[in-house]
Amino acid sequence: MKSKLGISVLFVEDEKTLQLLYKKVLGEFVETLYVAGNGLEAFEIYKKEKPDLVIADINIPGINGIDLIYKIREISKEVKIIIITAHADSTHLISAIEQGTNGFLLKPFTGDRLKATVLDISNQIILRKNIEEEIKLRRKAEHDLLKVNSGLEKLVKAKTRKLEKLNKNLEKQVQEELEKRQKQQQFLIHKSRLESMGELAAGMAHEINQPLLSISMGLDNILHKVNTNKFSKDFLDSKMHTLFKDIERIKQIIEHVRAFSRDEAKPVFDKVSVEEIVHGAISMVQKQYSNHGVEIEVYPDENRECETQYVLGSKYRFEQVILNLLSNAKRAIEKRFRKLPKSSSESKVIRIYCTTKDDKWHVITVKDNGIGIPKENLEKIFDPFFTTSELHDGTGLGLSIVYGILKEYNGKIEVESKLNQGTEISIFLPKYNDYEK
Ligand SMILES: Nc1ncnc2c1ncn2[C@@H]1O[C@H](COP(=O)(O)OP(=O)(O)O)[C@@H](O)[C@H]1O
Ligand SMILES: [Mg+2]
Which of 116, 254, 320, 339 gives 20 to 30 Å between its CA and that of 36? Predict the structure, then answer.
């Protein structure tokens, strides 16, 4: 079967024979054909079917052809219209043109002529239809795209909200974790301070015992003399003098501990004697260590050069440094000696040396004959919370505090250690120069 033109045509003709003839001609190549015998019927069909092309005789019953065109044009400016007329009546034709006619067929005309005219105009119709179809498709595509876009937008928004919520949660978790850590650290720092304070308190008790004993004996003495009425003014003077000296000693010790345990908010830069630092620190723990069989030897090489030297910084902070080194040394010694056979004649000893280096530093060295530090730990010992203490008596903060203090006062620290033989830790303190103050 020959393919037909994809257009719809309304044919309006009142003469029955012509109607049949043209219906046959058109029916052969037009896909959809409507036929009307008068103007009214034609208009009804037009309204209902909206054909692409109207071919109308002007002389038709009901509404005449011109009026029909007029009414159809009111509905559509696009529909193609061809007029059939028997007489070349110019007024009719002009009206028809004014109403927007797209072509004419003068009666009588052959089937071929009709076909040629319709084919000619159908090109425009099909082109237009194609364009319209294209536009429709494009609009749909655009619409679809918009829909997809807005869907995407919604999706992105929803995801963003979800992410924001997650983020908030995460931030909260991080904050909580941080706070937890800070609390833990504060707790441990506090514990470490308490630890040194504990050692201090024990040392302090020892130190105070001495003058207290002396005071008590002195008072006993005086009481005895008073009871036997044998006391002279000289005797009383000398006794009182000793009593006041002992009381003064106790006051000094208490003052020392108080100053030591006080938090110095700002770093203090004083002229401090090395002697004061070393003896200040030792005086607090020497007796106590001795009770545990650990002796502290100061300047065993008889080099006392340091005694008259000065450094720049805080006496109590430097004391704290030495105390931390002493405490580590004592623990390391005890650890090693626990493993030694009872028959061993070696004694537990911490030695403190003092030297000068590069005309720039005073170096205080704390040397022990303890367990030593394995190579792999050497880099870690200054890390906060690094500890090898098994007895839960260490916080791992000691050396990190030492490091912090030395940094604050422009000092430095060096470590040498031999496993199972001992460790030597040296702190370098900047020399005090007279022109500095
Ligand atoms: N003199 C030393 N001898 C052997 N090991 C030491 C010595 N000083 C420090 N260390 C090692 O360094 C670690 C960290 O010391 P520190 O920061 O003072 O923490 P803590 O004493 O609480 O363990 C110790 O646990 C120990 O392993
Ligand atoms: Mg320690």
Answer: 116
